[in-house]
Amino acid sequence: MMSRTRVRPTPPRPVQLPAALDDPREHELDELGHRSQLEHARLHDVDLRHRDLVGSTWSGVDGRNVTLASSDISGAFLTDLRLASSDLANLGARGASLQRVEVVDGRSVGLGLNEGFLQDVSFHDCQLDFAAFRFARLQRVVFRNCRMHEFDLTSTQLQSVLFEDCDLTDADLTRAEFERCEMRRCILSGVRGVQDLKGVAMSMLDVIDLAPLFASACGVNILDADAAEDD
């Protein structure tokens, strides 16, 4: 019998920032709002919380310590964006398009990317508890060392997505579609929709750790090792 060759996830393409970046003036930052544009900019220690940024276009932006908490960027187009040590808590981003985006050490609790499109995106060392990516499309995306309690991937399409050293406790994977995806050393306690993990590759050790969860999804009752045999 010929063994099947496993196709590994394709890694994200890197963020491409321009060599020269501008530092927006205070009045330019104040003008950022509905359908605004921001290009080739450096955003360091900037507070943009509670902003209406719906339909905005950001391209070639290097951000550090940016606060976007409780803002709304639904329908936005974000390309070649890097955010480090930034606050994205409860950021609304329904239907947003993210291409070549990197988020590092981000506080992203409650981030809402429902119906979004993510291509060549990475999240490193992020808090993504209660984040929702329902009905979103993910291509070449990496989640590395992220806490993702109750993360919602209901009906999400995932292609070439890697979850590495992530805590997905109580996440919802119901009706998610996985293709060329991997989960490495992830915690999946209490995950819903485990029966929809078809298309995900895991190590044997990870599979063994998840055996009770898989058994429950299949309706298999697990006997205690020292259970007495029926007479």
Short description:
The protein contains three helices and ten strands.
The CATH architecture can be named as 3 Solenoid
Give the CATH H-level superfamily: E3 ubiquitin-protein ligase SopA
Query: Count of helices?
Result: 3
Assign the CATH class. Answer: Mainly Beta
The overall number of domains is 1
Report the strand count: 10
Distance between the amino and carboxyl termini: 42 Å
Spans where pLDDT lies below 50 across 5 or more residues: none
Main β-sheet, in a few words?
A: 10 strands, parallel
Radius of gyration: 20 Å
Share in β-strands? 25-35%
Q: Which structural class is indicated by helix and strand composition? A: mainly beta
What is the N-to-C order of secondary-structure elements (H for helix, E for strand)? HEEEEEEEEEEHH
CATH topology: Pectate Lyase C-like
Average predicted local confidence, pLDDT = 93
Please give the share of residues in helix.
under 10%
Explain this structure to me?
The chain is mainly beta and 231 residues long. It has a single domain, classed as 3 Solenoid (Pectate Lyase C-like), CATH 2.160.20. Strands 1, 2, 3, 4, 5, 6, 7, 8, 9 and 10 form a 10-stranded parallel β-sheet that branches. The mean pLDDT is 93.
